[in-house]
Amino acid sequence: MFFISNIDRYLPIYLLRHLSRCTSSYYFRSNVIYPTMQTVQMSSCDSNAVLKADDVVFEDAVLETPCNYCKLLEFDDLRQGGRVQVAKDGTPFVSFIESFYGRPIPKLELDLGYCRADFLPDLPGLAETASQGCTFCEILRRDILSVWNKKIQDSLNRGVAESEKIERARLTIIDIEYKLQKDITMNSGEEFESRRPWFDMLVVYFEIDGSKDNIFSLHYNLHTQNYDPSAIWLNIRRRPIPLGSFSTTRFERLKELIHLSLHEHLPPTDDIYLPTRLIDVGTRMSEYIRLVITEQHQPLVQAKDYDSKRYVALSYCWGSGKDAERQLKTTKDILDNHVQGIKAERLPGTVADAVKVCRGIGVRYIWVDALCIIQDDEEDWARESFEMSNIFAKSFLSLCILRGDSCSSRFLTRPDSRTLRINFQSRLDSSVSGSLDLNISQSPTLGLKRWLFLDQLYDFYDIDKINNVAEREIGDATWNSRGWTFQEALLSPRKVYFGNYMFHMSCGKLQESEDGARFKDWTWEMFPFLAKNMDWINPWYKLLDNYCKRRLSYRQDTLPALSALARAYSDSYPGQKYLAGLWDSDIECGLLWVTNASQDPQSYLQQRKDEYIAPSWSWACRPCVPWWLVNVSLRRSFTREFELRKSEIITQEGNSYGRVYGGYLLLHAKIHQHLLNGGVRPNISSPWVEDKFGFGHVLHSNGNEYIAHLQFDHFDWSIDGCKRGRYEYPDWPVDRLFMVLLSRCYSNSDPPFPPVVEGWFGILVIKADDEDGFERVGIFHSKEYSFLGGRELWDGIERQEIKLI
């Protein structure tokens, strides 16, 4: 095949081997030969099953009579080059080693040499061997038909003429392999070091119509019982999860992980924090729960030990529209009623299940925002939102509900577990026999990957990450896209994520799923921002970059939903003043934000008047995702070119980090207005000087000499008629446009070479209509030693007081 040599730098070597081995069955669309329906006898799994492929249910199926192809799934540790080794405790196990440039390394792919061809959309070959009793062929046929009907066929036919759309295709299974995972130790008390790889999944690679762009793979996670000899021999870490609802066994597993997490983060034994209100969940048989005022609730007042005062915090999605409106809330008129008691049947599904979890793990109290904050009391809402940094940071446990997208979603039920048991008998040690169980519960489309050979290539790291159940459930959850849950997750030292298939514990280095698999929690990577370190500001911009991509039901919550993190940050780095999402000590970089938005300028200016969220100089005033030039500071040094003489932020009473009603910065800075063409308008056009930051416009002198690159907050000038060489302006006050210098940027040079000024940075402002001050409308940078840019522009200008509003 001509394409094999072209893709050998993209595909793993084992996959190349089997591409080569199977080339005789590869054909392109133009010369595919499809069999007639008479050439292969159809089994009872006839073509009607195409529409009902997902209806087949397998629970604890066993591969008892595999076909000649699927006998290869019965793992042969001798054939795979296994070596018997003995652990420090005397336990024997098998390892798989290969040579890499003469150095022995663990093998991570154990290919089985599986190769067979079939034909879509019916897969008669798989149907035939399935009818003869091969359970894996039946499962594989079901899953391939599912992904073909739901995903692959549409993707291959996208943009193709109707007459050329694919309805039938040749499918070749290139190989099947057992995939091992190289592990990094996460348990407390152990160093981060490479460990023995563990059996992770079975991967099925298949190709459609002989095209290098149409290679796909399906993935099945492996698990077995902890008492099964193969668990230790092969290092299979995952354990099966009991069928049905949240059983006693699953509660015991949850309590086991909570106990392990105590080695990572010990609860406080003194200075115990309690929120203003909590929900007393009562006992397992209690018909009522009740809202308690912690300062007045005698069991809490009289308790001396931490266990009697610990509480759980609930992080979940309210939902939108009717779900949020119907949710049971505490308001001023029913506060006393909730203190008397709340009937459990009135609780929305998410809260009701959270109460069950508290009772199951033996924690008496839970904090739920809808019930513990008086929702129609602005003072109480501000005061409690201010306390959220303590509420989550000092909770015993946070329940993060990934399942569903509203408060009515139940999360303790789960889909039935379905497995295929493959018998295992070691040929290296006859005393070792057991089973490898394939998890076939998840939708096949979730386990489907497409191999591409350009920038979209999935490499093994990406496959491992995507097929990790925890990381996929967290990443895909509505909960993970909401603004309020961002700070709740970051501030919680001990979290349990409840997903569709299982729960996942995250506490420090302990990041382990219910089935025993380990995962990487994104909050652990971001959490060190609270540690004392010299580079304290860049982590803040990293937080903002993640936070601003999330959704809020109400724009007014932009700063309140970040206020707990801001307070925690302020506590960690005292002496910093918080300014509507920015910090005074880094304001010269904090003001250098950019948004990519297209909006009529008059509508943009009017929107800020109609719905005040933050001052014009704060990123929070824009509904778009911002990015910062501050990223450049990783390589360069910014020097402030102004004096911040005064700052004032008017916030909601009770939360100085929350909702903002007004504010200004008083700068002593250089300001410049460059009017040309008769002193009426600036000379602005599309860029013709190369710009590393991608700014959309350039300010020129009357002689078309470069002065600065400009980027406006509100819209793209190219859309609204500003063309190169012509100065056609939209109807907006460009005659009020000024440039305010904020900083110079130096390159970092190694001695003996001195730092070199690379650019001058600042904001674009206009005079406010009805206030004494300037509003921000954009950003600029000016190149040093370029025509009239840099010091040529700014050296002769005196500083003056400028009020930014």
Which structural traits does this protein have?
disordered N terminus, alpha+beta, nine-stranded mixed β-sheet, ten-stranded antiparallel β-sheet, globular, 35 strands, 805 residues, 26% strand
Structure in words:
The N terminus is likely disordered. The protein has 22 helices and 35 strands. The protein is of the alpha+beta class and 805 residues long. The strands form 6 sheets. Strands 26, 27, 28, 29, 30, 31, 32, 33, 34 and 35 form a 10-stranded antiparallel β-sheet that branches.
Layout of SSEs?
Elements (H helix, E strand, L loop, with lengths): L3 H4 L5 H9 L39 E2 L19 E5 L5 E9 L2 E4 L2 E3 L4 E5 L3 H8 L3 H23 L11 E13 L16 E11 L6 E9 L5 H5 L14 H14 L15 E4 L7 E6 L4 H5 L8 E5 L6 H5 L8 H6 L1 E2 L5 H13 L3 E3 L1 H4 L5 H9 L1 H6 L3 E5 L17 E7 L7 E7 L8 E4 L8 H8 L1 H8 L7 H8 L3 E4 L4 E5 L2 E4 L8 H5 L11 H10 L15 H10 L5 E2 L2 E2 L3 H4 L2 E3 L5 H10 L15 E3 L7 E5 L2 E9 L8 E13 L10 E3 L11 E4 L5 E7 L24 E11 L9 E11 L6 E10 L7 H4 L4 E6 L1
Parallel strand pairs: 1-16, 12-14, 12-15, 15-19
Antiparallel strand pairs: 2-3, 3-4, 5-7, 6-7, 7-8, 8-9, 9-17, 9-18, 10-11, 10-14, 11-13, 16-17, 19-20, 20-21, 22-23, 24-25, 26-32, 27-28, 28-32, 28-35, 29-30, 30-31, 31-34, 32-33, 33-34
Helix pairs in contact: 3-4, 16-19
Count of separate DSSP helical elements: 22
* Beta-strand content: 25-35%
Tell me how many strands there are.
Answer: 35
Into which percent range does the helicity of residues fall?
10-25%
Shape verdict:
globular
Structural class: alpha+beta
Mean pLDDT: 82
C-alpha termini separation: 66 Å
Low-confidence stretches: 1-58, 185-194, 454-464, 717-730
Compute the CA-based radius of gyration. 31 Å
Let me know the largest β-sheet.
Answer: 10 strands, antiparallel
